Amino acid sequence: LSASMYTEIQQERPDGGNILTHPDYIDRNPDLIKPKKLLNPVKASKSHQELHRELLMNHKRGLGVESKPELQRVLEHRRRDLLIKQKKEEEEAKKLQCPFEKELLKRHQRLDQLEKEQEKQEDHAPEFIKVKENLRRTSTVTGDEKAA
Fold this sequence. Notes:
Blueprint: H1 2-12, H2 24-27, H3 41-44, H4 46-61, H5 70-95, H6 99-124, H7 127-147
C-alpha cells in the first residue's frame, strides 16, 4: 500500500519529488488545512529583538561586540570582587575550624573581656583613689629628679 502511494507521488511530480519546493499538501486535497510556519519563541521575545537591534546599531557605529558599556563593566568587576571576597571569607572560616585556632580565639576573647572589666572597675573607683595614685606618681618623679 505504501509503495503504491510513493509511486503516485513520484508520477505527479516531474522534478524528482523535491519535498521542500513542492510539499504534499499543495498537490493534494484543497480542503485540508494548510500548516503555518511556527514562530521561534526566542526570536519572538522582546529581549531578543532589543538585543538584535542593539547589535545592529553597534555594528553600524563600528563598535566591536567585545566592547561593553561602562556600567556593565563596573557591575561585572564588582561581582568578581564580591565573589573573591566571599571565597576568602570561606577559606578563613575553614582555617578557624581547626581546634588549635579555636582555642587561641577563645583565649583572645577572654583576655579582651578581662581588660574591659578592669577598665570598667577603674572607671567606677572613687575620685580620691584616682587622685591619690596620680599624686604618688608625681611625687616619685619629683623625688627622683631631686636625687639626680
